[in-house]
Write a structure and sequence with these properties.
The chain is an alpha/beta fold. The protein has 15 helices and 17 strands. Strand 3 and strand 4 form a beta hairpin.
Length: about 425
């Protein structure tokens, strides 16, 4: 009797085993399917988050631009004092500047500009320079007034002040008469260097040339009247300032350059090896309008709420955006300006945009990973830093980082700052 049930039992056991195997297979398949769906969902979620982040970044950029525009409406006391001091003589003799005339000047077409430049005499250029050198307007009876103000490049100031042209040429020729010394003209100044070492900077302030040297002011003869600027940011590398205007001060400048080169063991080239520099293009007479057209003078519009009859004295900020910088800084200049320093670390890398640095640091400030962590701009466990060209830069910063985008380097260099890469 039992023997009759054995085949039936075996059949049931085999069926149960097959059922169990089918259930296991279905379970694994379902688990795999759910896992794949989960990955797809995660991928879609990441894409959605990235899209949202892009929108946030775009909104941030728009907000930054709005902030920059609104910040231009704020009068900075220190810069106001500088403008007033630089233009004191003109302020005393000039009471008003007509806004409408300035706007008409900007709107004139290129053909008219070219014709006017050819008809310009040196005296006319000087007169126009004296008028347009002043960023001052008098308010109308309206409560809110929009004014146009100007910021001139080093090149423009030299062109518009004919008395500074021979001084600039003589000093520039002296620097470049030494072996391997290079000069780079930026919007704000001329930098003189040998390799990665900065030797001096030349600025135009008002009606004088300012020369900053890599010299100790207290080691030099008092006759040079060097000013100690070591407490300023520029003074960390260039602690001595000389103001140059007269023939005697030009002679002293040459002597100081000789001392500077001697301290750095830089030899002077033989006379036959000194290359003659062509200043025709740089120093050719041009009108204020043409300089504005060429971007050597930048025009800014500001809106302010002011009492009737009050003068507005405002120094605008020069600014550079990533999409503009390639016009002003070449790849060769990038290679020349980068310096290197030991100190690279392994570990977590953080990325920061140039616009954030611009917002949280002042002119000539040094930007380091430690300072960014101290300002709570980066996590405390960050070991490495990369700088990207997102946002607007309107000041010269001395940035030390492990890595940069090329656009970020160009923006920093254009604004007169320095780039140091840790290795």
């Amino acid at each position: 009797m039992i023997e009759q049930f054995i085949p039936f039992l075996i059949t049931c056991i085999i069926a149960i085993i097959l059922l169990i195997l089918i259930l296991i297979f279905l379970h694994k398949y379902e688990k795999k399917r759910l896992g794949l769906e989960g990955k797809i969902k995660k991928t879609k979620l990441k894409e959605k988050i990235n899209d949202e982040n892009k929108k946030v970044v775009e909104n941030d950029n728009l907000e930054e631009e709005t902030l920059v525009e609104s910040n231009e409406e704020t009068v900075v006391q220190e810069e106001v004092k500088e403008i007033v001091e630089e233009n004191k003589e003109v302020i005393e003799s000039t009471e008003t500047i007509n806004i409408i005339e300035n706007e008409k000047t900007v709107e004139s077409n290129e053909e008219t500009i070219v014709q006017e430049v050819s008809e310009y005499t040196n005296e006319e250029l000087i007169k126009e320079s004296e008028i347009n050198d002043l960023n001052v307007v008098t308010t109308t009876s309206t409560k809110f007034v929009e004014t146009t103000i100007y910021n001139k490049s080093f090149n423009a100031q030299i062109v518009l002040q004919s008395n500074l042209k021979p001084i600039y040429k003589e000093i520039n020729n002296e620097f470049l008469s030494y072996k391997n010394v290079h000069a780079r003209l930026s919007f704000k100044c001329v930098r003189y260097s040998i390799g990665r070492k900065l030797l001096a900077k030349m600025f135009v302030r008002g009606k004088k040339i300012y020369l900053y040297y890599a010299l100790n002011p207290y080691d030099q003869d008092p006759k040079y009247h060097l000013k100690d600027v070591s407490e300023k940011k520029i003074g960390e590398e260039l602690p001595s300032l000389q103001k140059v205007l007269s023939p005697r001060s030009v002679m002293y400048a040459k002597q100081l350059i000789e001392i500077l080169m001697g301290n750095n063991e830089i030899v002077k080239l033989k006379e036959e090896k000194i290359k003659e520099i062509d200043y025709t293009e740089v120093l050719k007479p041009r009108s204020f309008k043409l300089l504005l057209e060429q971007g050597l003078i930048k025009a800014y519009k500001i809106k302010q709420e002011v009492p009737e009859g009050k003068e507005i004295k405002e120094k605008p900020k020069i600014e550079i955006k990533p999409e503009e910088v390639d016009e002003f800084v070449t790849d060769d200049e990038v290679e020349e300006e980068i310096s290197y320093k030991n100190g690279k670390k392994l570990g977590k890398q953080a990325i920061i945009n140039i616009g954030i640095l611009n917002e949280h640091f002042d002119e000539e400030d040094e930007v380091t990973l430690e300072k960014l962590i101290g300002k709570n701009l980066l996590p405390k466990d960050t070991k490495r830093l990369k700088v990207l060209a997102y946002g607007i830069l309107d000041k010269g910063l001395n940035v030390v980082a492990d890595d940069y985008s090329k656009q970020a380097i160009k923006m920093i260099i254009y604004m007169g700052g320095s780039v140091t890469i840790l290795k």
